[in-house]
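Supplementary Methods. Inverse-folding protocol.

Structures were first reduced to a discrete structure-token string of length 165. This string, shown here, constituted the complete conditioning input.
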């Protein structure tokens, strides 16, 4: 049995204190312990980007990080953006642009794109493509995802600082 360690996090604006196994990955902690299943487990090698979350505002692969390494951090997951009845501006831009088909990769693309738009409210298409190049999609061919990010930028997402505190 693995050693338990104390962990304190802010996840989507809510504080969490508890214990977890020291070898538990952040993605497993989010999905299993906090029941935030929107962050998907894809390749488990950090290649596909499906598990991308924001750690202190920066995109990270939660399958490669231990939950205890995030101790004291602020984490944002797809659940913190909006709800089916109240989509965030980024979610709405992706919806309007048909930026997903099966949806498995969508949370990772959205979190990666959100970090980009916060840093650069008006990215060029080349900058968007570079930013999302670490996320893999088998369905869309990426153009609709790029269009979704462009629409979010056009709608002022980066300037409105869509943030979960």
């Amino acid at each position: 049995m693995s050693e338990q360690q104390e962990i304190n996090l802010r996840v989507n604006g809510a504080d969490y204190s508890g214990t977890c196994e020291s070898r538990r990955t952040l993605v497993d902690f989010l999905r299993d312990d906090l029941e935030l299943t929107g962050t998907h487990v894809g390749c488990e090698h950090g290649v596909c980007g499906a598990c991308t979350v924001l750690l202190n505002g920066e995109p990270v692969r939660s399958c490669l990080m231990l939950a205890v390494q995030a101790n004291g951090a602020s984490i944002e997951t797809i659940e913190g953006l909006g709800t089916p009845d109240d989509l965030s501006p980024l979610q709405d831009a992706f919806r309007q642009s048909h930026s997903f088909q099966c949806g498995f990769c969508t949370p990772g693309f959205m979190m990666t794109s959100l970090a980009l738009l916060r840093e650069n409210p008006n990215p060029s298409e080349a900058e968007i493509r570079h930013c999302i190049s670490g996320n893999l999609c088998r369905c869309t061919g990426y153009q609709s995802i790029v269009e979704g990010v462009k629409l979010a930028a056009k709608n002022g997402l980066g300037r409105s600082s869509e943030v979960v505190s």
